[in-house]
Amino acid sequence: MSPSSGKRSPLILPALVFLLVIGVVEGVIFAYKGKLHSDQRFQAVTFAADLRANAERELNNVLYLTRGLSSYFSVRHDSLEREEILNILRVAYQTSPVIRNFGVAVDYQLSYVYPAEGNQAAIGLDYRELETQWPDVKRAVEQREPVLSEGVKLIQGGEAFVYRDPIYVDDVYWGLLSTVIDAEPLLDAMFGVMDRDSRHRFAVRVNRPGNSVSLWGDEALFEDEDVVRLGSERGWEFAVQTRSQDAHWLPIFVLRIFGWVLALVTGLGTYSALLHRRQRLTQGARGQESAFE
Questions:
Q1: What is the pLDDT of residue 4?
Q2: Which long-range contacts (CB under 8 A, 24 or more apart) does 275-282 make?
Q3: Phi, psi angle pair for 261, to nearest 5°
Q4: pTM value > 0.85
């Protein structure tokens, strides 16, 4: 045995073994956390896609009805009488529990409203005089496409979604069909059931330039960099976060404790083996010295 090896501290190798085991365990934990994060993000993306699909489905159930009525008025505009218009709106109103009322504007004046009860304040209004609603009405007419307005404060009270579909006859603007949808029951149909999913929390907002309207959940969730975000063609934005992102702390804690115990036992075992070997070598050297005397 060389003098340098004889003087080398028996703690160096056990310490290296201890650190090696700790490094392996932490590497396993790091890989485990990465897989958990990847799985949770995939689940959040899937949930966000289902959330968007459910919202579109519930909304389209109402909007398709409006498009059908708009086409009917466009074809029958010459022969329509007041009683017939109100009867058509009454039948359509009874098909959906989330519709608050229908309104038909001839030119820009709201001439027909069903049901009239509770909506008298809206009858006879000229959209051009409504500062908050006119921009969306103007956009629908100019683009010749329906426009959905979210979070509209109604003159007759309450908050609603308003879907405005311009009616053109022979390529000339004739009027506007508006469907006023109660916000609370519609949003509950879209998101209420999914919000009871204990695995995720989410928020939904309308994100347009100069017009951000919170539809569901805590909007502060959008400020979290780790959330999954998903947009839609309507300008809606969905933010989803896995509620159970910290639920795996226990297995990670147990694995880390096991790793440290294993490292400690392995290090102590290595130290004991080296110490025992050194003692044997020392005793052997002393035996050889005694034999030469």
A1: 47
A2: 275/10, 278/10, 281/1
A3: -65, -45
A4: no
Sheet holding 236-242, edge to edge: 211-216, 200-208, 236-242, 228-231
Give the residues across from 139 on adjacent strands: none
128 in Cβ contact with 101 (< 8 Å) = no
Residue with the two structure tokens 């009405």: 137
Residues of the chain with pLDDT under 50: 1-6, 292
pLDDT at site 79: 64
Q: How far from each other are the two terminal CA atoms of the chain, in whole angstroms?
A: 21
